[in-house]
Amino acid sequence: MVKSDLVLILDYGSQYTHLITRRIRSLSVFSLCISGTSSLAAITHLNPSVVILSGGPHSVHTPDSPSFPDGFLPWARSNAVPVLGICYGLQLLVQRLGGHVRIGDKQEYGKMEISVNQSSALFADDKIGKRQVVWMSHGDEAVTLPDGFHVVARSDQGAVAAIENPSAKLYGLQYHPEVTHTEGGMDTLRRFLFDVCGVEAGWKMEDVMEQEIKVINDTVGPDEHVICALSGGVDSTVAATLVHKAIGDRLHCVFVDNGLLRYKERERVMETFEKDLHLPVVCVDAVDQFLTKLKGVTDPETKRKIIGKEFICIFDAFAQELEEKLGKKPSYLVQGTLYPDVIESCPPPGSGRTHSHTIKSHHNVGGLPKDMKLKLIEPLKLLFKDEVRQLGRILDVPEGFLKRHPFPGPGLAVRVLGDVTEGNALDILRQVDEIFIQSIKDAGLYDSIWQAFAVFLPVRSVGVQGDQRTHSHVVALRAVTSQDGMTADWYYFEHKFLDNVARKICNGVRGVNRVVQDITSKPPSTIEWE
Ligand SMILES: Nc1ncnc2c1ncn2[C@@H]1O[C@H](COP(=O)(O)OP(=O)(O)OP(=O)(O)O)[C@@H](O)[C@H]1O
Ligand SMILES: O=c1[nH]c(=O)c2[nH+]cn([C@@H]3O[C@H](COP(=O)(O)O)[C@@H](O)[C@H]3O)c2[nH]1
Ligand SMILES: NC(=O)CC[C@H](N)C(=O)O
Ligand SMILES: [Mg+2]
């Protein structure tokens, strides 16, 4: 385990569970999230110093609503492990300890004011004072508390907002301290962790690096060879640099041109790898292979699965080639998979999200074939993007790489809606995207945007160009701000900028006569269109 106390989150499916993890890590304390119905053995094996029960969409009254295992609370008590329940987590604690939770007369969604009791360690010396604005999202309420508990905050509607039983080290917050709209949320979490639980803050990226290098060396051993799927993006570049530091020339990187890359991307990526990173990389031309398999396919999830499978076929073939050269077949594959990829994709056991929905299968997680032979090494699997960028800086990865906007492995296939092989959609999209991105760079906006790209829509509209009637394509521009890709807001360009870009696109790209902008946030949309 990384050098720091572990705060373990038991996840009951709240949309905000990942935020709890992020907030705690930002306090230099290591935090992980596992399924809220994990076995007692799985929980105790991790040896957490603190356990937090997340919120969730369920109601404690319904049969089969998820809960922690029998024996969890006695274990926590006898090991002096503090437990904090948030929202559904509070309701679970109350119900399992013999209190009563009922369907509330009034629901509380969004901003609410609460009055807190500052003699509680959760709110002691709070600068905000007795009245606090918090973010609520619940319909049930605790009405009778279990023995030993008392109320330490109430909402203006009179509902229980915070409870504690200090001698048993049990705490509960009905609101969400992890969301930024809760003004004192971070302070309450900080006091809970450091003052109430006495947690040590010692989780640093340097430790993560050392820890991961050790894990890689232990896994790979002294003479096995390893393949790394390198995309030119932030994640795989940092992953490759880390593994290269651990095992040196036994790492063999492969960059796949799947025909779904952006304008001149192959040339640009290969050149920068050689010039700036000094990593040995082989480029595999698999354009025909991917596009043949994608012909006629329109369903987004099917596209993603096909792409995931083709990637693995190529990595297998590359391993075979290396066997002929080295006399030994690499048995491991490094991928730059991140925590959000795992959270949003088909949830593998232990990843936590067993009580929430699969949004889309990221090609490198849910899209992987079941019978793949290469074993995975994913050193960034527990990190968020900003943490990966931090790790990259420690590893001296050039800033230019670290600042690149994310680009999904399925590439333009999830940005050409419908059949990607139809007409010259891919070519049109490449030209439009290049104009958009170059304009953003020229305007000095690239670093303030999380991700920007163009989308090819499978519709035609009527235009008039050079006095001629055209019946051509519509493209959409999307630019978003985000911290980790889990939630996002659309970026506000000045009208003049948009006007310029639209003009450049229609003048410069044959086959396009209309440009629209995507102004939806995530949720309700996602960042990519498929
Ligand atoms: N064209 C490619 N060639 C080889 N591997 C790829 C390619 N595209 C994606 N991958 C693999 O899939 C993983 C996930 O892709 P993803 O786009 O999430 O990460 P990334 O490209 O490394 O970083 P970023 O999110 O910044 O683009 C990559 O880390 C890499 O291992
Ligand atoms: O490597 C990847 N493989 C994928 O299959 C994939 N799908 C989405 N993304 C990227 O993830 C972030 C969130 O995207 P969505 O809001 O579209 O789910 C955004 O940054 C997306 O670009 C992917 N990255
Ligand atoms: N956000 C939550 O955890 C909600 C818990 C429960 N479903 C309620 O409505 O009260
Ligand atoms: Mg990428």
Walk me through the topology.
Elements: E1 6-11, H1 17-26, E2 30-35, H2 40-45, E3 50-53, H3 72-78, E4 83-86, H4 88-96, E5 100-116, E6 131-144, E7 150-155, E8 160-165, E9 170-173, H5 185-196, H6 205-220, E10 226-229, H7 234-247, E11 251-257, H8 265-277, E12 281-285, H9 287-294, H10 300-326, E13 332-334, H11 339-344, E14 375-377, H12 385-394, H13 399-402, H14 425-442, E15 451-465, E16 468-482, E17 488-490, H15 495-508, E18 512-517
Parallel strand pairs: 1-2, 1-3, 3-4, 4-9, 10-11, 10-13, 11-12, 13-14, 16-18
Antiparallel strand pairs: 5-6, 5-7, 7-8, 8-9, 15-16, 16-17
Helix pairs in contact: 6-7, 6-12, 7-12, 9-10, 14-15
Domain GMPS ATP-PPase: 203-404
Protein name: GMP synthase [glutamine-hydrolyzing]
EC number: 6.3.5.2
Describe the overall structure.
This protein is of the alpha/beta class and 530 residues long. The chain has three domains: 6-196, 3-Layer(aba) Sandwich (Rossmann fold); 205-402, 3-Layer(aba) Sandwich (Rossmann fold); 419-517, GMP Synthetase, Chain A, domain 3 (2-Layer Sandwich), CATH 3.30.300.10. It has 15 helices and 18 strands. Strand 11 (251-257), helix 8 (265-277) and strand 12 form a beta-alpha-beta unit. Helix 6 (205-220) packs across helix 7, helix 6 (205-220) crosses helix 12 (385-394) and helix 7 (234-247) packs across helix 12 (385-394). The two termini are 37 Å apart. Mean pLDDT is 91; it is low at 346-354. Bound molecules: adenosine-5'-triphosphate, xanthosine-5'-monophosphate (XMP), glutamine and magnesium ion. The site of glutamine has 12 residues, from strand 6. It catalyses: XMP + L-glutamine + ATP + H2O = GMP + L-glutamate + AMP + diphosphate + 2 H(+).
